[in-house]
Write a structure and sequence with these properties.
The chain is built from 19 helices and 15 strands. By secondary structure, the protein is α/β, with parallel strands linked by helices. Among the domains are: about 100 residues, Arginyl tRNA synthetase N-terminal domain (Gyrase A, domain 2, 2-Layer Sandwich), CATH 3.30.1360.70; about 140 residues, Isoleucyl-tRNA Synthetase, Domain 1 (Orthogonal Bundle), CATH 1.10.730; about 70 residues, no CATH class. It has a five-stranded parallel sheet with strand order 7-6-5-11-12, with helices on both faces. Helix 2 packs across helix 3, helix 5 crosses helix 17 and helix 18 runs antiparallel to helix 19. The two termini are about 35 Å apart. The structure holds one RNA strand of 75 nucleotides.
RNA sequence: GCGCCCGUAGCUCAGGGGAUAGAGCGCCGGCCUCCGGAGCCGGGUGCGCAGGUUCGAUUCCUGCCGGGCGCACCA
């Protein structure tokens, strides 16, 4: 379940509450003051102990006493029996109370890691709550670009993190298979189709110019021959479009698959229209009194629900907007039992957030159950120059090309290297480099080294004895202690990264962990150390490998045995 | 114009009410008779500006400046 470290943190927090109560009962602190917010944190500096609390400083004002005095009173009433791992506590700086743990807690953590194996760090805090993570949802009109790729890496890692924290996660892709852009796809396909038979039919100005559309047209011809050459235009276009959408979706699915991303649900927009779900949502909005007619269109009073302005639901030509369909889509998600909806969207969809939430609220749903991650855009660099991209002209780098250039591991690592609200400069040259400039290799190299150590061990016909018989107390060096402490952080790092929907925190963690391993490895011999020490160090190495593998898996990155 | 995101080291970015603000890259100098040198160790400068809240602000609030993205009967 919880890690030893988080259990100790909780125990300290409870003991502090107990000390506070006791001090008040003894009338050494005023009883009327409210208990302030306080944290039991992990200090940055090693000299400040293993845990630290700001409780006394937060109490300074309500008790009108100097924080160090308050800290002394709290410590007098602190019951060490309630957290047996605490060896001592002292008062430092402006009024921090610092806690120092008995050295054995680190060895206990190592045992826990080895016993739990790659389940170490898994938690149940999600309580099986049903979460829907929708990401990429690219239009089926072309290939995947860098923005889609970033969304893919982010969404998939967020889903993996939440799943590991005990949420029941569904990964979902919404297919925009209707509407204006599909008409443009149809016109582009028709032009390419006729070109294949020698006609001079240019792709419309606002069509999709990419060569992939011509490829799709050729695949259609390969399958249908000349059957559709002489059928009426509308019928041919319908067949072309149906084929085209399926072809594009198949390609998108395949690209994402080679990026290590697999969906549970592919949800079709046109199905929402066909089933009447869109119509029903519009009717419910009308019934709720949230709409009005104007200029021949049906409007939703979004501004009444916190959005900037009202929005059209049904255009004057009778067609429902994408906005109406998207409300219906999210209503559908709720009806499937999800209580937490996460969407990963590009910054260019920002304007859509407030009105979608407004629509859900008007229908009686809690808009806070929908959380939209607005991801800033990706700039691609090559040879120090920005690579300009335009989907319309077909002039852009695709996910397929990226994977060919830099490989899946580097691509996934780079896309979750930064926070989603930070612009991402993706340096193709750096990601391509099979060298030490490339951070993903640094982490993988640590894992390969560990694997190599166990290969060496096997060559000598040796094996690690049972964990309980290993004398872990022999691990006393500074590098060893730092490494174990980092391993002890892992479960809490995972929870923090999951709750914050911030996989880049895990990227940072795994890099630091690899760094501490390299530092340890360079200073200390593992195989060939004194027998007892060799075993203890092997346990440390084993545990490091377990955590590296688990962390990389959550990021969708491989942990190679050899490189 | 209005809204959202960002402004932290030469560059790309973490961090975020607390005790001495971090990493990578680049630059300089060291370290393998030994488990993978794709590594390790050492060396430097920094929170855009101005107010405010606070015992304490790089972090929160306001204004300004700079960059990005939105503000369609597109999706």
């Amino acid at each position: 379940m919880g890690s030893l470290k988080s259990e100790i943190r909780t125990a300290i927090s409870h003991a502090l509450h107990g000390a506070l109560d006791a001090a008040r009962t003894a009338l050494e602190l005023p009883t009327e003051a409210k208990i302030p917010e306080f944290v039991v944190s992990s200090p940055r500096e090693e000299q400040f102990g293993d845990f630290s609390t700001n409780l006394a400083m937060q109490l300074a004002k309500p008790t009108r006493r100097p924080p160090r005095d308050v800290a002394a009173v709290i410590l007098q009433h602190f019951d060490y029996q309630r957290c047996s791992w605490v060896e001592k506590a002292d008062i430092a700086g402006p009024g921090f109370i610092n806690f120092y743990l008995r050295a054995g807690w680190l060895n206990e953590t190592l045992r826990q890691i080895v016993k739990e194996g790659e389940e170490y760090g898994r938690s149940t805090i999600g309580g099986r709550q049903k979460v829907n993570v929708e990401f990429v949802s690219a239009n089926p009109t072309g290939l995947l670009h860098m923005g889609n790729a970033r969304g893919a890496a982010l969404g998939d890692s967020i889903a993996a993190l939440l799943n590991y924290c005990g949420f029941t996660v569904t990964r979902e892709f919404f297919i925009n298979d209707t509407g204006h852009q599909i008409d443009r796809l149809a016109a582009s396909l028709e032009a390419r189709y006729r070109q294949e038979f020698g006609e001079d039919t240019p792709v419309p100005e606002d069509g999709y110019q990419g060569a992939d559309i011509a490829d799709t047209a050729r695949r259609f011809i390969a399958q249908t021959g000349e059957t559709y050459r002489r059928v009426p235009g509308p019928e041919r276009i319908k067949a072309l479009t149906d084929f085209g959408i399926a072809d594009k979706i198949a390609h998108i699915s395949k690209s994402l698959g080679s990026f290590g991303i697999f969906y549970d649900v592919w949800f079709s927009e046109s199905a929402l229209h066909a089933s009447g779900a869109v119509q029903k949502v519009v009717e419910n909005l009308i019934r709720a009194g949230a709409t009005y007619q104007s200029e021949g269109a049906l409007w939703f009073r979004a501004s009444r629900y916190g959005a900037e302005k009202d929005e059209v639901l049904i255009r004057s030509n009778g067609a429902a907007t994408y906005f109406a369909a998207d409300i219906a889509y999210h209503v559908d998600k709720f009806s499937r039992g999800f209580t937490w909806l996460i969407n990963v969207w590009g910054a260019d969809h920002y304007g859509h957030v407030a009105r979608l939430k407004a629509g859900l609220e008007a229908l009686g749903y809690d808009p806070d159950c929908l959380q939209v991650i607005i991801m800033q855009l990706v700039r691609l660099f090559q040879s120090g120059e920005v690579v300009r991209m335009s989907k319309r002209t077909g002039d852009f780098v695709t996910l397929d090309e990226l994977l060919e250039e830099v490989g899946r591991d580097a691509a996934r690592y780079f896309f979750v290297l930064r926070g989603s609200d930070s612009h991402l400069d993706f340096d193709l040259d750096l990601a391509r480099a099979q060298s030490m400039e490339n951070p993903v290799y640094y982490v993988q190299y640590a894992h390969a080294r560990i694997a190599s150590l166990f290969r060496q061990l096997a060559l000598r016909d040796k094996a690690l004895p049972a964990i309980d018989s290993v004398r872990l107390e022999l691990l006393a060096a500074e590098e060893e202690e730092r490494l174990v402490k980092k391993l002890a952080d892992f479960p809490e790092e995972v929870v923090d990264a999951a709750i914050d929907l911030a996989p880049h925190r895990l990227t940072g963690y795994v890099h630091e962990l690899a760094g501490l391993f390299h530092s340890f490895y360079n200073v200390h011999r593992v195989i060939g150390a004194d027998p007892g020490l060799e075993e203890a160090r092997l346990v440390l190495v084993l545990a490091t490998g377990i955590v590296l593998r688990r962390a990389l898996a959550l990021l969708g990155i491989s942990a190679p045995e050899k490189m």
